[in-house]
Amino acid sequence: MSDEPDWLRIHKALAVEAQYNYTDLQGQQYRFSEFLSLSFGKPPAHTSFDDRNHWRNLAFEFADYHNLTLADRKELLSKASQFLTFAEEVAAKKRHHPTAPVSAANDSAQSPPQSNIATLQPTKKVLPPVSSIVRENSGNLELGRSLRDIPSIGIRKADILSKLGLFTVKDVLYYYPRDHIDYAKQVNIIELEPGETVTLVGIIHKFNFFTSPKNKKLNVLDITLKDETGHLKISRFYAGTRYSNRGWQETLKRKYPVGSWVAASGLVKQGKYGLNLDNPELEVLSEGDTSISSLKIGRVLPVYPLVEGVSADTIREAVVIVLPATEKLKDPLPKVVREQYGLIDLPTAIRHIHFPEDSDTKEAARRRLIFDEFFYLQLGFLQRRHLLRQIQTEAVIKPTGILIDRFNEILPFQLTKAQLRVVGEILGDLEKTAPMNRLVQGDVGSGKTVVAVMAILAAIQSGYQTALMAPTEVLAEQHYRKLVGWFNLLHIPVELLTGSSKIAKRRQIYRELETGELSIAVGTHALIQDKVNFRNLGLVVIDEQHRFGVFQRAKLQQKGSQPHVLTMTATPIPRTLALTLHGDLDVSQIDELPAGRQPIQTTAMNNRQRTQVYELMKREIAQGRQVYIVLPLIEESEKLDLRAATEEHERLATEVFPEFKVGLLHGRMSSADKDAALSDFRDNVTQIIVSTTVIEVGVDVPNASVMLIENAERFGLSQLHQLRGRVGRGEHRSFCFLMSSSSSNDAKQRLQVLEQSQDGFWISEMDMQLRGPGQVLGTRQSGLADFALASLAQDEEVLTIARDAAEKVILQDKDLSQSPGLKAELDYRFQKLMGGSILT
User: Fold this and answer.
1) Which residues contact residue 143 at a Cβ distance below 8 angstroms, ignoring those fewer than 6 apart?
2) Which pTM does this prediction carry?
3) I need a surface site. Which of 10, 57, 78, 501 has the fewest CB within 10 A?
4) Band (804; pLDDT cuts 50, 70, 90)
5) Which whole number is the average pLDDT over 726-732?
6) At what angle do helices 575-582 and 796-812 cross, to 10 degrees?
7) Residues 812-836: pLDDT tens digits?
8) What's the Cα-to-Cα distance from 439 to each of 372, 410, 543, 583, 829, rounded to whole Å?
9) Kind of pairing, strands 300-303 and 179-182?
10) β 662-665/688-691 pair status
11) Could you give the dihedral angle defined by the CA atoms of residues 216, 217, 218 and 221, in that order, rounded to the nearest 10 degrees?
12) CA distance 346 to 354
């Protein structure tokens, strides 16, 4: 195929159209205007830049031919014929003298009148910056200005935006998009590739609107677009009978007239009948318009979090209106910090996070704003730690004494090196005048309780009372049992206070705590009731601390005069998550399991292998072992499908294991019934216990050697690891079977993580990568910061440098008195992220 136009055919088309009085003749394939628009839309090869624009100017004029008057059509044909003659001569000269700089546009001897050419518009629309669309005068856009007072937004739209918590100019600027769709790549139809998001410009060649024969409520708009490289049918769908009436069809016909130029943006998909754009955005290109004025077409389009009643376009329009106000923003981050970590300034970042020019500007903006989210959180944590260290505690605790010595003597095992290291860190804190605020993080069975007991004994021998709070009665009772076993040998009384405690027992505990007779109380939320008063509380120990709210933990601390606080968690979390949740804590990690812990053979199974699992259970029980069968909760609210649980218990007891005693444990049972079920299992009265996840933490039955987890694909990896930790606690080889009915590769890959590793920290890291931090910690986690852009799973590098920067700032200016702008921004950000002041 020649790279040059079919000169003769174009000249002939011009002549025939003039002969038939400029009626836009219909040919075999195209109308006259379409053929000329497509022909001029493809300039000869090696055409100069100026000439290429002239070719496409004419293409655009012919695309609008059907709207021209007869006089305008005559003038256009004359102009086109004249330019075509010049262009043909230029092309001929180029063929004979390839190196000569010849151009129809700069050939003064033959060039057509420039004034006429200059009035034409280019076919390929130029994409201007979003700022060129802004109508509002930036001088009126103060950051605190109410959206209701901005004329181009108005009261109605302001009320709609208020549903998102957007009331001022600054609110809108800081309402970041959650994603972007890149429509900036403009291509020809022939260049379309499946999977790419693109914008193309072409002529509407055919229009069709019809009701789907399979669904009378679904209407389909089919438009065939043509450009110089080919044609493409695209479709838009309108659900609802209101779109079926003829008036709507006529409206669409007027909106998308045949012969008009249109820009279409969307995802290219390979369909049954070839390539198409998936439900594209469309914009008809107006005559005389030199640019694409839409906020969607041809741009990197922001996608915002929405609520019912607020459209994406409403937010985008508001953002464009207030965007000039970024000129009023002062960047509180010191320039030296920005330069050290390669960060752009804040006004530029906010402009480019909303409407980036390309992917590079978007990523630079995103990096800066993610840095800010992490930086101010870490700065707040570090300042809170600094402020707390200024507080004095009355409880200065001796790290050595007779109780600790005697406890070491009665322990039937040696502490691991990791346990000894953590004990040393804790006892060192207890000697200081500033209250301890330390988290002990350890895997299932790593021996956190023994470490906590060392701290408790140090406090008691120094004359202080202690409290150990656990989130559930099952876990509180488990701690109580352990402490009673040890403390009876040391002649130290221990009491358990829960919601199930008898009234007389409660009153006795209240009285003994108030007089100081009772040195340690173990309990649940019952410990923070108003009636509970300690005489001299020196140490608070909180287990599974992430299950308590900030204010619940603070209320227990208020029972004493700035007591030391030791928190524990058996949910190992990655370093990024630890920094984000516990940036104000000193963190100790028990990363070594005690000697003698048996590895747990973990296997993912399907229903066809169920009989094999049951047979292995029977063999284990015949050897004196015991079995857990765990059922998932049906809803996140922990409402259990009790009928399914009781039916499964009944089936197992009567059909599968009739020769054994099968117990049942679930969250809706009374405390007394739970205690009875657990006691029977501990004492081997029942060999099998069918349970929900209430046994996830706290249940310690060394004789249990097998666990079957039903519907394992419904659990997170960290939760499965916690459940698995209920077996392998004794001397016997142990098994965990993950029964899954899912055939998806994703579910299989997740369960393989459990098969491959028993390292809780690594498993938690994988869980966070796969499901996100909120799911790793549980949906009710109250301490997790709410980030607009940052991802703990993906932005570890930015978190690390943000922490580094925050440490340097606090080192030089502990109370931020020298940086009032930074302090003001910190107060605003910290409250927004954490929902409270720095000292909450």
Assistant:
1) 168, 169, 170, 173, 325, 328, 329
2) 0.62
3) 78
4) very high
5) 84
6) 40
7) 888 888 888 898 888 877 666 555 5
8) 26, 26, 10, 11, 25
9) antiparallel
10) parallel
11) 90
12) 13
